[in-house]
Design a protein that fits this description.
Blueprint: H1 15-85, H2 88-102, H3 106-117, H4 122-125, H5 128-139, H6 146-152, H7 158-174, H8 179-190, H9 196-204, H10 211-224, H11 227-241, H12 249-255
Helix pairs in contact: 2-3, 2-5, 5-6, 5-7, 6-7, 8-10, 9-11
C-alpha cells in the first residue's frame, strides 16, 4: 500500500539537472557582466558629454569675451577719432566732464554742463560728441538732472533732440516724483517737445496727479503752451475730467 513518486528529467539523464542549473548561473553572470559594461559605457558617455558641454561653454565664454573686447576697442578708436576733431577749448571741456564722470562727482558734472549751456550759441557750437557724453551722464543722475536734459531737447542736432526727449520721458515716467515737481517739469518741457506723439505722452502724465495739481498744470499750459500744446490740450483735459467742453481756466476751476 505504499506509493512512491519519482521525478525524472525530460532526457532521462540525471546529470542534465546539474547542467541546467549551471547554464542558468552562467546566463545570470553573463547578464550581470553586460549590465556592468553598459553602466561603464554610460559613465564614459556622460563624462564625454560633460566634457564636451564644458568645452562648448568655455569656447562660448571666450568668444563673448573676445567680442566684447573688439567692441570696446572699436569704441575707444571711435572715441579717439572724435576727441581728435575737438578744438583745444572743447578738448578741455570734454576732459573736465569725463573726469567728473569717472569720479562720480554729480555736483561737478552738473556744474560743468550748466556752464556749457550758458555759453552763447552752445546748441550749435558744442560738439555732438560732448553733448552725447553729457546726456548719458545726466540720465544716470535721475531727477536732479531733468532741467539740464530739457535744455538738450531744444538742440539744433536732431539726434541730440531725439535722445534728450527719450531720456526725459524715461525719467519722468520711471522716477517717483511729487505731483508738484512732475507738473513743473511738464510745463517746462512742453514747449521744447516738437514731436506730437511724444508731447501727447507727456500730457498724459497729468492723469497720475491729484485733481488740484492737474488743474493748475492745465491752466499753466493754457497760458504758456505753444501751438502744438494748444492743439493737444482739449483732448488731454477731456480725458482727465471726463467731460466735454471744458476749455478755459475758469471752467477748470468750476469743475474742481
Amino acid at each position: 500500500g505504499v506509493v512512491v513518486w519519482f521525478q525524472t528529467n525530460p532526457d532521462g539523464d540525471p546529470s542534465n539537472e546539474t547542467k541546467t542549473t549551471a547554464e542558468r548561473k552562467d546566463k545570470t553572470a553573463a547578464k550581470s557582466r553586460i549590465k556592468t559594461k553598459n553602466k561603464t559605457r554610460r559613465k564614459i558617455s556622460t563624462s564625454k558629454n560633460s566634457n564636451t558641454q564644458s568645452s562648448r561653454y568655455e569656447n562660448n565664454r571666450n568668444g563673448r569675451r573676445a567680442a566684447l573686447q573688439r567692441l570696446r576697442q572699436r569704441f575707444l578708436e571711435e572715441e579717439a577719432r572724435e576727441i581728435a576733431k575737438l578744438s583745444h577749448d572743447q578738448k578741455e571741456l570734454y576732459n573736465a566732464l569725463q573726469k567728473a564722470i569717472d569720479d562720480t562727482n554729480d555736483a561737478e558734472v552738473l556744474r560743468i554742463i550748466s556752464n556749457m549751456q550758458s555759453l552763447k550759441d552752445w546748441h550749435r557750437n558744442i560738439s555732438p560728441f560732448i553733448k552725447h557724453t553729457a546726456l548719458n551722464a545726466l540720465f544716470a543722475m535721475g531727477e536732479k538732472s531733468l532741467p539740464e536734459i530739457i535744455s538738450f531737447m531744444m538742440d539744433s542736432d536732431r539726434e541730440i533732440v531725439e535722445e534728450a526727449n527719450s531720456l526725459f520721458m524715461d525719467c519722468i515716467s520711471d522716477i517717483d516724483l511729487s505731483d508738484y515737481v512732475r507738473s513743473k517739469l511738464m510745463v517746462a518741457a512742453s514747449n521744447a517737445i516738437t514731436d506730437l506723439d511724444m508731447l501727447d505722452s507727456l500730457l498724459s502724465e497729468v492723469n497720475s496727479m491729484r485733481n488740484s495739481v492737474a488743474v493748475e498744470t492745465f491752466k499753466q499750459l493754457l497760458a504758456t503752451g505753444n501751438s502744438n500744446v494748444q492743439q493737444l490740450l482739449p483732448d488731454a483735459i477731456e480725458t482727465f475730467v471726463g467731460e466735454e467742453g471744458i476749455k478755459t481756466p475758469e471752467q477748470l476751476d468750476e469743475w474742481l
